[in-house]
Write a structure and sequence with these properties.
Largest sheet of chain A: 5 strands, mixed
Strand content of chain A: 15-25%
Radius of gyration of chain A: 21 Å
Shape of chain A: elongated
Order of helices and strands of chain B: HHHHHH
Helix content of chain A: 25-40%
Largest sheet of chain B: none
Distance between the termini of chain B: 70 Å
Shape of chain B: elongated
Oligomer: heterodimer
Number of helices of chain B: 6
Mean pLDDT of chain A: 92
Number of strands of chain B: 0
Strand content of chain B: under 5%
Number of domains of chain B: 2
Order of helices and strands of chain A: HEEEHEHEHEEH
CATH architecture of the largest domain in chain B: Orthogonal Bundle
Structural class of chain A: alpha/beta
Distance between the termini of chain A: 74 Å
CATH topology of the largest domain in chain A: Glutaredoxin
Low-confidence stretches of chain B: none
CATH superfamily of the largest domain in chain B: Cytochrome C biogenesis protein
Structural class of chain B: mainly alpha
Number of domains of chain A: 2
CATH class of the largest domain in chain A: Alpha Beta
CATH topology of the largest domain in chain B: Helicase, Ruva Protein, domain 3
Mean pLDDT of chain B: 83
CATH superfamily of the largest domain in chain A: Glutaredoxin
Number of strands of chain A: 7
Chain lengths: 178, 155
């Protein structure tokens, strides 16, 4: 085999191996896991369930956000929906927004869920599940608390919320003593 | 020639006819194999998650309504994104997923063929040719050893 062909093949093999190592390194350095408290909450812009109007997380800067990931087929999500609705009604005039992110779901099922539960807080649809990886969501429901500066604060509640979880973490997000 | 052409046409029809029937009258089992459950990332056929059950119910309803396979898949992609498809669509950037493996196979076959050709040519060049009397001559060292061995038998 001529020297030039051999060198070209060797260079191609080295390049392929280097690319695979770079891909492995990127995956190791960017794991899809829950962000730590104190870090800026991963941003997103998603369509509102009812109106298709684009809603961005950044638009709630200056308010505390209760970010709840759910799906209509999730049993515990049905149980915690009244708690979230109640918190929304109590705190919406005190600088708190409850924001639901519906994912891995049918539009019609999500809408039926919202109607049956009497939910009035904003719900966005993440059809492609793009936010799930950024927040390290592994199941439903999961809830995050974000302060007025857009930072993750308090506890990350993986599973159904309790009244105590909500009260304690909303106070933390508002910068009040828990 | 005409016979061969007819045979190729018959083969193409034999392959195309079931595909067209499947497109017009899809069944739940075949769609279950071609779609992925968004929560467990297995095919619907292998998944028993709540959303997989809901998707099966949706597919049954759409089959009853007379939707084609493409229409049903399109509606599910609209709800869950393209990751719901077990195989990427043969269009746009996803076409690369179909073309690259074929290109890789062709390229690998070309490299192997080229190397085999070079190797066989080099071997031919190294092989001793026939001598003037039409017989192949041996390597001088081998010939010397052979003579020695034969001489031992002679004595």
């Amino acid at each position: 085999m001529p020297g030039r062909v051999r060198i070209a093949l060797q260079a191609a093999a080295v390049l392929v191996v280097a690319l695979l190592i770079a891909l492995l390194g990127w995956k190791v350095l960017n794991p899809e896991e829950a962000p730590d408290a104190g870090r800026t909450a991963p941003g997103f812009t998603l369509p509102h369930l009812n109106t298709d109007e684009q809603v961005s997380l950044a638009s709630f800067r200056g308010k505390a956000v209760v970010l709840n990931f759910w799906a209509s087929w999730c049993g515990p999500c049905k149980d915690e929906a009244p708690l979230l609705e109640s918190a929304w009604n109590r705190y919406k005039d005190k600088g708190v927004v409850v924001l639901g992110v519906d994912a891995q779901d049918f539009d019609v099922d999500a809408q039926r869920f919202v109607d049956r539960a009497g939910i009035t807080y904003p719900i966005v649809r993440d059809k492609h599940g793009s936010t799930l990886g950024h927040y390290g969501v592994t199941g439903f429901p999961e809830t995050w608390f974000i302060d007025a500066q857009g930072r993750i604060v308090g506890e990350h509640v993986a599973g159904p919320l309790t009244e105590g979880d909500l009260e304690r973490n909303i106070r933390i997000a508002l910068g009040e003593p828990a | 020639m005409t016979r061969r052409l007819l045979a190729v046409l018959a083969l193409a029809l034999a392959v195309a006819a079931p595909a067209a029937a499947s497109e017009q009258n899809p069944t739940l089992p075949e769609l279950e194999r071609e779609l992925i459950c968004p929560t467990c990332h297995e095919t619907l056929a292998a998944s028993s998650s709540p959303i997989a059950d809901r998707m099966r119910a949706f597919i049954r309803a759409r089959i009853s309504a007379g939707d084609t396979k493409s229409e049903i898949k399109g509606k599910l992609v609209d709800q869950f994104g393209e990751s719901v498809l077990a195989a990427p669509p043969k269009s746009g950037f996803n076409l690369l997923a179909w073309v690259l493996p074929l290109a890789g196979i062709v390229l690998a076959a070309g490299v192997v063929g080229f190397l085999a050709y070079r190797w066989s040519r080099n071997r031919k060049a190294e092989e001793p040719g026939p001598s003037a009397n039409g017989r192949f001559s041996l390597d001088p060292e081998l010939e010397r050893r052979l003579d020695e061995e034969l001489a031992r038998y002679d004595t």
